[in-house]
């Protein structure tokens, strides 16, 4: 059985995420966060490190989703 932990984000961000995932296959903020974190971890594991360009691309994606300012 998979164990889970809780990650806290500001309510305002959660509201923005809810709006962002409307009409997508993501059922919740948790689904989106799991997807994003898995993507980052898999990318890191495949290359053994993120290049500066990959890090910047991920940063821009997270900014676009409202996770970063």
Average pLDDT, all residues: 83
Largest beta-sheet details: none
Q: Low-confidence parts lasting 5 or more residues at pLDDT below 50?
A: none
* Total strand segments: 0
Rg from Cα: 13 Å
Quote the distance from N terminus to C terminus: 36 Å
Order of SSEs, N→C?
HHH
State the domain count: 1
What does this molecule look like?
Helix content is 62%, strand content 0%. It has 69 residues and is an all-alpha fold. The chain has one domain (9-63). The mean pLDDT is 83. This is CopG family transcripitonal regulator. InterPro entries: Arc_rbn_hlx_hlx (IPR013321), Ribbon_hlx_hlx (IPR010985). It comes from Halostagnicola larsenii XH-48.
Keywords:
69 residues; mainly alpha; 3 helices; 62% helix; Ribbon_hlx_hlx; CopG family transcripitonal regulator; Arc_rbn_hlx_hlx
Summarize the structure.
By secondary structure, this protein is an all-alpha fold. The chain is about 60% helix and about 0% strand. It has one domain.
Describe the SSE topology:
Elements: H1 11-21, H2 29-47, H3 52-64
